[in-house]
Specification:
By secondary structure, the protein is α+β, with helices and mostly antiparallel strands. The protein has six helices and twelve strands. The strands form two sheets. Strands 1-2-5-4-3-6 form a six-stranded antiparallel β-barrel. Strands 7-8-11-10-9-12 form a six-stranded antiparallel β-barrel. Strand 7 and strand 8 form a beta hairpin. The chain is globular and about 60 Å long.
């Protein structure tokens, strides 16, 4: 589990087969390397990978063909110059972003990035499979970065996030151009809500299995929510 707060930038180099060498290149790489251990989980552009060998300034991990196919890591379309890196959440650590699982739902593309007086406004397009988890003011992970949805256009499957200058400067968002692929992970809370609402056959006496259309003020009052 991760928080979506990027700790360093790195590069990826294929070693043949499914093995990849990830090298930390930013000045904050100590945050990744200071207590790295064999078997640790590291988020690489939002994809959870397992440390299989520790190097002086990085590590080696396996990215399966399925992972490469479903994410940007193996993309030849818009190859990433740098990848975002975050070590897994430690017990007792601060959760400054939101709970990011490192299980990418799919990819999206940058539509436009515009600089404002206080931030960068970046608009992405997502597939319907991902878009159903997007809600205004909700959380989404873009290349492993915890961001808040500022606006959502469901008819276009597009969402906009406001990126503060610090995040823009210290992540690979600054290297994106219109059309660039990004990894997207919807908020895990939305996935659980969807499961509880739609799993199994609808039961009018069960809050967990009731379809959305049945959640009315009368229903909420009956079950003690109003």
């Amino acid at each position: 589990m991760f928080t979506g707060l990027i700790q360093a930038l790195g590069t990826m180099k294929p070693l043949g087969g499914d093995s990849w060498q990830i090298t930390c290149v930013s000045q904050s790489s100590d945050l990744i390397m200071q207590d790295i251990a064999y078997g640790d989980s590291i988020a690489v552009d939002g994809v959870c990978l397992t440390v299989e060998e520790i190097l002086k300034d990085g590590f080696i991990a396996t990215a399966s063909p399925e992972t490469l196919r479903r994410t940007t890591l193996g993309s030849e379309d818009t190859p990433q110059k740098y990848v975002n890196l975050e070590a897994s959440l430690r017990v007792g650590s601060k959760v400054g972003g939101h709970f990011v699982m490192g299980h990418v739902d799919g990819t999206g593309r940058l539509v436009i990035a515009e600089q404002t007086a206080t931030s960068w406004e970046m608009t992405f397009i997502a597939s319907e499979a991902i878009a159903r988890y997007i809600v205004p003011k909700g959380s989404i992970a873009v290349n492993g970065i915890s961001l808040t949805v500022a606006a959502y256009e469901p008819e276009l499957s597009q969402f906009t996030v406001a990126v503060i200058p610090l995040t823009y400067a210290e992540t690979n968002l600054r290297y994106l151009v219109p059309g660039s692929l990004v990894n997207l992970e919807g908020d895990i809370l939305g996935k659980y809500v969807e499961k509880f609402l739609y799993s199994g056959k609808p039961n009018p006496n069960s809050v967990e299995n009731s379809p959305l259309d049945s959640i009315t003020p009368a229903f909420l009052a009956e079950h003690g929510y109003l």
